């Protein structure tokens, strides 16, 4: 059976980590595309030369030509500028829309049967544009943001409670913006509600709520926190790991339930927009959207987040 093939469009900070993670996990042969001459070729040669050390047997190719992505099973898009300190993700919409249009045309022409995972920001708008320009079915075009936002939320909970990150379960919904919706009610440590553990730890309901509110706030601002520290770009290790989790579930038909920026057609009361919701990701891409009842507070936060996505998408020319 031939190896799977993954195309990475954008060979920058995230693209390079994506390529290395694909290789380390032997997800398939990898093609790294960028418009900068030599950049993808140099990074892929470097990763290929580490193969004898880390022991992966996959073909790794860097290219400036879209023809080389032909036959890809999954395409992951990071092409686009990252933000600088003081910028919001939305500030990138104009420049990255132009880039995404050319990228989507390249994918449509050369990998018409691929599943596409968009990472470029502003994510909710870029995945919308990518689907529109490629014309691919909605189940084959998704955005990565919720796996990252949920990972950040889970990390903060694990650090606060002093438990393994492996035993924390939590999810964010909605857009990849400041209005994202970390679901406190469903956050647990092996099924034990986090709020109960916080109340036990602090012997106070108020203090527990205060600590949780701070973690929710930090989750919403976590991207900006890294940008402010790095000064020259944005997070790239965690977004790469997050997109690989999604790609792996599709390539291996794992049916993982992952927060995914998916096209809603009535689910959660939303129609016609890409929004972060729990999806079953398998060989069919988005195979199912798992709906569940939101309480009044969660619904209000979701409505606010969806409104922000609608405004962002509406602002695209
Ligand atoms: O989780 C998430 N969704 C977000 C996404 C998390 C963090 C960062 N997020 C966004 O991903 C970020 O705001 C950017 O919009 C993208 C890529 O971030 P990265 O840090 O990888 O940016 P780089 O290092 O600048 O890499 C972008 C590459 C760079 O090598 C350019 O030469 C290339 O994109 N580029 C292009 N490739 C193909 N085609 C075109 N037209 C093009 N223009 C630039």
From TrEMBL:
Catalytic activity from the UniProt record: (S)-malate + NAD(+) = oxaloacetate + NADH + H(+)
Catalytic machinery residues: 176 (proton acceptor)
Residues of the signal peptide: none
GO biological process, one term: lactate metabolic process
Keyword NAD included in the entry's annotation: yes
Residues bound to NAD(+): 10-15, 34, 96, 119-121
A Pfam family this chain is assigned to: Ldh_1_C
Domain Lactate/malate dehydrogenase N-terminal: 5-143
Molecular function (Gene Ontology), one example: L-malate dehydrogenase (NAD+) activity
Annotated EC: 1.1.1.37
Domain Lactate/malate dehydrogenase C-terminal: 148-311
Stored InterPro entries: L-lactate/malate_DH, Lactate/malate_DH_C, Lactate/malate_DH_N, Lactate_DH/Glyco_Ohase_4_C, Malate_DH_type3, NAD(P)-bd_dom_sf
Binding site for substrate: 83, 89, 121, 152
Keyword line: NAD, Oxidoreductase, Tricarboxylic acid cycle
Record-stated family: Belongs to the LDH/MDH superfamily. MDH type 3 family.
Described purpose of this protein according to its UniProt entry: Catalyzes the reversible oxidation of malate to oxaloacetate.
Protein known as: Malate dehydrogenase
Organism: Geomonas silvestris
Lineage: Bacteria, Pseudomonadati, Thermodesulfobacteriota, Desulfuromonadia, Geobacterales
Gene name tied to this protein: mdh
């Amino acid at each position: 059976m031939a190896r799977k093939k993954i195309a990475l469009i954008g060979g920058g900070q995230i693209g390079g980590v994506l390529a290395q993670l694909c290789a380390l996990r032997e997800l398939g042969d990898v093609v790294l595309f960028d418009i900068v001459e030599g950049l993808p070729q140099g990074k892929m040669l470097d990763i290929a030369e580490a193969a004898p050390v880390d022991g992966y047997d996959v073909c790794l190719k860097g290219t400036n030509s879209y023809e080389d992505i032909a036959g890809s099973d999954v395409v992951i898009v990071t092409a686009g500028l990252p933000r600088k300190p003081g910028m919001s993700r939305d500030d990138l919409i104009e420049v990255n829309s132009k880039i995404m249009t050319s990228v989507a045309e390249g994918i449509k022409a050369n990998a018409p049967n691929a599943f596409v995972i968009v990472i470029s920001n502003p994510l909710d708008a870029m995945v919308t544009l990518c689907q529109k320009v490629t014309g691919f079915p909605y189940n084959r075009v998704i955005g990565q943001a919720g796996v990252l936002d949920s990972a950040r939320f889970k990390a903060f909970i694990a650090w606060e409670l002093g438990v393994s990150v492996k035993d924390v379960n939590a999810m964010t919904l909605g857009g990849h913006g400041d209005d994202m919706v970390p679901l406190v009610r469903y956050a647990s440590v092996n099924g034990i509600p986090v709020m109960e553990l916080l109340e036990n730890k602090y012997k106070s309901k108020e203090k527990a709520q205060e600590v949780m509110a701070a973690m929710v706030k930090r989750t919403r601002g976590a991207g900006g926190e890294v940008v402010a520290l790095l000064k020259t770009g944005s997070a790239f290790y965690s977004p790469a790991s997050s997109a690989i989790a999604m790609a792996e579930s599709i390539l291996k038909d794992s049916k993982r339930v992952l927060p995914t920026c998916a096209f809603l057609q009535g689910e959660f009361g939303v129609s016609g927009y890409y929004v972060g919701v729990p999806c079953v990701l398998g060989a069919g891409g988005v195979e199912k959207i798992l709906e569940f009842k939101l309480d009044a507070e969660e619904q209000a936060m979701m409505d606010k987040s969806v409104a922000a996505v609608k405004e962002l998408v509406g602002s695209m020319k």
